[in-house]
Amino acid sequence: MLFSLRPDYASDPLLQNLVEQLREYLDDELAEYEHEHALTPSTPITRELLEPVWRRSRELGFYGIHLPPRLGGQGLTHTQLAALKEEVAASGRVLGSSVLGEMGGPLRAGDIMAAATEHQMEKYFLPVVRAERACCFSLTEADAGSDVRAMRTTAVRVTDGYRLTGHKVFSSAGPVADFAIVVARMADTEKTYSAFLVDLDCAGCQVLPGATPMSGEHIESDIVLDDALVPAANLLGKEGDGFTLGLGRVNVNRLLHCPSVLGMTRRALELTLARSRTRIVRGAPLGDLQSIQHKLADMATSYYAARAMTYAALAELDTGTVPRLEAFMCKLNVAETAFRILDEAVQIHGKEGLTQGNEVEYLFRRVRMFRVLTGTSEIQKNGIAKLLLEGAGQSAA
């Protein structure tokens, strides 16, 4: 894998064709749509804004493209999907996360669809695939982030299903979702957790505006459940499968989030190179200064190393192996590397990099969040150390 700020996939003709088509849509049609609606990262996102993008992305074949052909996708490998996610993030499009279905679409549902019954597929997931309905995932609580076992949301078994009570936070896509995948602890147990499909308009359920993250995006919601009745048919898998489904999704997403962050980092590198070429200091381009050249060299080298590491782990995932140790390592390295690169990008942009409305300033805030989201860097280190001490990565004696 050679270094490039505009990767070429000549060895994979299918992927190369998809990337070219995706770039064209992102840079032309979607860019024009965003311009017409004067969208910025802090614009409140509504269904009215997103639905045309969902439908158009589905028409072009991108919405749910990772799904198997029987569900309308192209059955992409994890590596191919990662390359597309990277392109979306590198485009700088405000609504980019809706193109592949991350904002309430098939990518938001993730591998949980594999546990769905025929009824659940027909009522909930297939409409999501068709861009008719949207979903969100609700696991986090105010005092149950990295330590998800501290969750207080409970499910009580009743004659006609389950009664759920609790308060979920940071439910991404919640403001536009029709239903949520909620993980709750079974009442009167300490370690039994189950997953449920919860209609967000059901009695006892409230969707409230969530906290605005430092990125300034309005994509989060709180989901408050007060004795909300969930039909027995809406239990995902079996009772007790909640962590397997919820954290299994997180384990894969830990690695699949990395290409998106790499895409944002790539965008920042492009913007910083442009700034270094065009910013005139004392009669010469900023990039003529050796101190700036050294920063650019370190930024590009670190980006290349993080990207190569990530795609090596993705290749292993495509063989059927779940690279648990490597996924922890990639998430840690990409998060910390991207943060350092964006910090230097802000430094090189100077005053412009400190100004709200400047893209590099926004990217800095987005990337900073990744050191916490999907498990903090400290949690990744814990996971790495635990697996190393258990003997992961050692050759057989």
Explain how this protein is built.
The structure is a single chain. This protein has 397 residues and is an alpha+beta fold. The chain folds into 3 domains: 13-103, no CATH class; 135-239, Butyryl-CoA Dehydrogenase, subunit A, domain 2; 257-389, Butyryl-CoA Dehydrogenase, subunit A, domain 3 (Up-down Bundle), CATH 1.20.140. 46% of the residues lie in helices and 14% in strands. The chain has helices spanning 13-36, 47-59, 78-91, 106-109, 118-129, 242-256, 258-278, 290-318, 324-349, 359-369, 377-389, and strands spanning 135-138, 154-158, 161-168, 179-186, 193-199, 205-209, 221-231, 235-236, 280-281, 284-285. The strands form 2 sheets. Strands 1, 2, 3, 4, 5, 6, 7 and 8 form an 8-stranded mixed beta sheet that branches. A hairpin with a 2-residue loop joins strand 2 (154-158) and strand 3. The protein is globular, with a radius of gyration of 22 Å. The protein starts with 12 loop residues before the first helix and ends in an 8-residue tail after the last helix. The model has no long low-confidence stretch (mean pLDDT 94). InterPro entries: Acyl-CoA_dehydrogenase, Acyl-CoA_Oxase/DH_mid-dom, Acyl-CoA_Oxase/DH_mid-dom_sf, AcylCo_DH-like_C, AcylCo_DH/oxidase_C, AcylCoA_DH/ox_N, AcylCoA_DH/ox_N_sf, AcylCoA_DH/oxidase_NM_dom_sf. Residues 240-388 form the Acyl-CoA dehydrogenase/oxidase C-terminal domain. Residues 136-217 form the Acyl-CoA oxidase/dehydrogenase middle domain. It holds the Pfam family Acyl-CoA_dh_N. Its cofactor is FAD.
